[in-house]
Amino acid sequence: MHPEASTVGGDLSEAVSVFVELRPRLFGIAYRMLGSAAEAEDVVQEVWLRWQRTDRSVVVSPVAFLSSATTRLAINVAQSARVRRETYIGPWLPEPIDTSNDPQAGAERAEALELALLLVLEKLPPTERAAYVLREAFDYDYPEIARILGLSPVNVRKIVSRARRHLTDDQRDSVDAVEHRKLLDAFVAAARRGDTASLEELLTPDAVSLSDGNGMRGAARVPVLGRARVANLSTAYPRFWPTVEVEPVLANGRAGVVLHRDGRPATFMTVAATCRGIHQVMWVFEPGKLAAYLATRQGRFQERSLSGLRTTQTWTTREPATSRVTTAATVSS
Fold first, then answer.
1. How much is the pLDDT for 290?
2. Residue 333 pLDDT level (bands cut at 50, 70, 90)
3. By the 8 A CB rule, do 280 and 210 touch?
4. In the predicted structure, residue 304 carries a pLDDT above the cut 70
5. For residue 186, is pLDDT > 60?
6. Sign of the C-alpha dihedral, residues 258, 305, 45, 140?
7. Mean pLDDT over all residues of the chain?
8. What is the mean pLDDT of residues 283-289?
9. How confident is the model over 87-145, as pLDDT tens digits?
10. For the chain, what is the radius of gyration of the CA atoms?
């Protein structure tokens, strides 16, 4: 053993303990900011590197330090992601994450987790998004958010208020989880029967169907608008439903389904609804997003993160195509 290993290990053991305890919160902040589990985990790994290299003896509040680092890194990634998504083919949807074991995904409250709401937040400037997430999902007070974002508390209040105004009545008036499951099950059952009349009864007049396939064959490249068109689209391929198996899942705190073809996951689907009916149908066909969702189901992101804290080598690589940071960290075991 290296002569300094025990000292280093002892010094970092507390750092690891603190980080592991706060990791769900850090992931929850980054995920709500980015709408991507993979990018959120990369941010969390980079924050670990910074925490490891920081003089922790001068850190008054680890929670404040780590939350601030996570938020600022996520803002940077969000700014670059906006540019990358300009070349995305067709509608873009957030990556769903499995919440069967953690319905709130690390937050003190479940706000800003549903896919439909994340999609609305994606339209906000990154700083405005960060202020809303920290306040509404994690209950940070305005002075704390101001310190994290380098703004005044007055400005933060204005930013959060402006972000709230961007949310439509549909986001504020969502049905509860039980009713959501009933509506989704009814939609899937009607679609499998090819029953467009029943589908139209479930949908609001202004319903929209969004298919995230990034140019994949069979995925609509534009939003499909209107009750009749959404119902027709959902039954347009008579051979589609008989060839898939439907698996109920819990994603982003709400019911969803994974459609399996030939024994393999092929599509994720969920809906957004109010007491007026289903107003949004979301289909994720893009293989990378589906794989990321399955990784969260199997806990692979968390396993990667925690195993990174036990490795004995440090490295950082960047992939130019995505500007994604992949990291592992040094802690002597």
1. 94
2. very low
3. yes
4. no
5. yes
6. positive
7. 85
8. 95
9. 889 999 999 999 988 888 888 887 889 999 999 999 899 999 999 999 999 999 999 99
10. 21
Q: Could you tell me whether strands 244-251 and 224-225 are parallel, antiparallel, or unpaired per DSSP bridges?
A: unpaired
Count Cα atoms within 13 angstroms, Cβ side, for 23. 23
Phi/psi of residue 151, each to 5°? -125, 175
The separation between CA 68 and the C-alpha centre of its own chain, rounded to angstroms, equals 19
pLDDT of residue 43: 97
| Per-residue pLDDT at 184 exceeds 90 | yes
The better pLDDT of the pair 82, 331 is held by 82
Tell me if 174 sits within 8 A of 114, measured CB to CB: yes
Region of 194 on the Ramachandran plot (φ > 0 left; ψ -120 to 50 alpha; else beta): left
Give the phi and the psi of residue 123 in degrees, each rounded to 5: -80, -10
**3-state secondary structure string, the chain?**
CCCCHHHHHHHHHHHHHHHHHHHHHHHHHHHHHHCCHHHHHHHHHHHHHHHHHCCHHHCCCHHHHHHHHHHHHHHHHHHHHHHHHHHCCCCCCCCCCECCCCCCCCCCCCCCCCHHHHHHHCCCCHHHHHHHHHHHCCCCCHHHHHHHHCCCHHHHHHHHHHHHHHCCHHHHCECCHHHHHHHHHHHHHHHHHCCHHHHHHHEEEEEEEEEECCCCCCCCCCCEECHHHHHHHHCCCCCCHHHEEEEEEEECCEEEEEEEECCEEEEEEEEEEECCEEEEEEEECCHHHHHHHHHHHCCHHHHHHHHHCCCEEEEEEEECCCCEEEEEEECCC
**Tokens 């080598």 appear where?**
313
Which tokens in the block code for residue 168? Answer: 């439509």
Which one-letter amino acid corresponds to residue 246?
Answer: V
Tokens describing residue 46: 């980079």
Residue with the bigger pLDDT between 262 and 81: it is: 262
Within 13 Å, how many C-alpha atoms sit on residue 122's CB side? Answer: 22
Task: Determine whether 258 is exposed, middle or buried from the number of CB atoms within 10 Å of its CB (0-12, 13-18, 19+).
Answer: buried
